[in-house]
Amino acid sequence: MLGTSSIMANEVLVANLQPLKTGEEDLAFSCALPMNAKGLRVLSRKSYEASAVSIFDNPLASRFDENDALMYFDDVKVPWERVFVFRDPDLCRAQFHDTQGHAYQNYQAQIRLSVKIRFLVGLARRLTEAIGTTEIPSVREQLGHLAAQASMVEAMLSGMEASGSQVGEWYVPNKHFMYSAQVITQDLYPKLVNTVRELAGGALIMLPSSFRDFGDAQIEQIIRKTQRSATMEPEQKVKFLKAAWDAIGSEFGSRHTLYEMFYAGARFVTAGHSFRTFDWKEATGMVDDLLASYQLSDELAAPRH
Ligand SMILES: Cc1cc2nc3c(=O)[nH]c(=O)nc-3n(C[C@H](O)[C@H](O)[C@H](O)COP(=O)(O)OP(=O)(O)OC[C@H]3O[C@@H](n4cnc5c(N)ncnc54)[C@H](O)[C@@H]3O)c2cc1C
């Protein structure tokens, strides 16, 4: 559907991450192709890097935009030696789920996300310092909650590593812990971004239109009067707030929120992985053990109340 960074790729892997059913043979296909294969069209979305005003104004979009693109196959010839799977739904599933492909791919995604969330929580702290609210008890409480959420994500990562297992020559993270982290973090990320916005107020928007405003002596004077902070010089404050906006509000920032909500599949897909890999036998066994520990007939024979 969508290829992140495909505009910079040499090859594309065409495959089905979502398991297919019998009867879906027409879709059960996998191959790898060079990006310049005849008929393969790459329709890039708008580049946030190209529309960034400057590094000062968009420090993230100007340097870290992973451009996404739609991949369009217009009668592309795929040589047989490039085909992995042809009309075989079970082999399509096996490609990711019998190998450790899906586990490793999503494990690295959780490492990446834990770093990103730590960055966002650092951003929240600096935001409250910039606008002078850190010592307000309810703000500290929100920061403490954000810190706990960042640590929860890291703890899930440590958990999936510590309770992983050796599969042949591979050490594989605990798959259910990994899928639960996916389900929980795709909900968590937009909430976390919203909390950071709530902590920031309008400061994220009340900013000079671009770095050029600092080049005009009259405007610069106004900026110095209006962008005051207990902890930052006006220039530093503007620099920081523009970076914060790029992380959580700009087109680049919004795309990141959408990415975290969908990169691993929509909610019903990730929750499906979690459903499949959970130890239901142990959980329902506890319920069954409780129910097996008393009988109606025992109560009737010797009532205790
Ligand atoms: C920024 C970004 C980058 C991406 N990069 C890549 C990439 O590099 N490679 C790649 O392969 N893919 C990539 N994707 C695509 C991603 O894998 C898909 O967005 C994801 O699988 C969800 O599919 P969809 O967007 O078609 O949404 P849909 O499946 O249409 O889901 C949208 C919403 O519709 C509802 N819905 C739809 N079907 C059902 C159903 N059966 N049951 C219940 N609810 C349903 C749900 O509310 C769901 O949240 C990227 C996506 C984004 C947003």
Structural commentary:
The protein is mainly alpha-helical. Helices cover 53% and strands 11% of the residues. The protein has helices at 61-64, 89-97, 101-131, 137-162, 175-200, 217-226, 234-248, 251-262, 267-277, 280-292, 296-301, and strands spanning 3-4, 11-14, 29-34, 40-44, 68-73, 83-86, 165-167, 170-172. The relative contact order is 0.11. The site of flavin-adenine dinucleotide has 14 residues, from strand 1, helix 8 and helix 9. Flavin-adenine dinucleotide (FAD) is lined by residues 1-4, 68, 255, 258-259, 262-263, 265-268.
Largest sheet: 3 strands, antiparallel
The span between the termini is 64 Å
| Main structural class | mainly alpha
Number of strands: 8
Average of the residue pLDDT scores = 95
- What share of residues are in beta strands? 5-15%
**What compounds sit in this structure?**
flavin-adenine dinucleotide
Strand order of the largest sheet: 1-5-4
- Estimated radius of gyration: 26 Å
Low-pLDDT sequence parts: none
Separate helix tally = 11
Specify the overall morphology: flat
> Share of helix among residues?
40-55%
Secondary-structure element series:
EEEEHEEHHHEEHHHHHHH
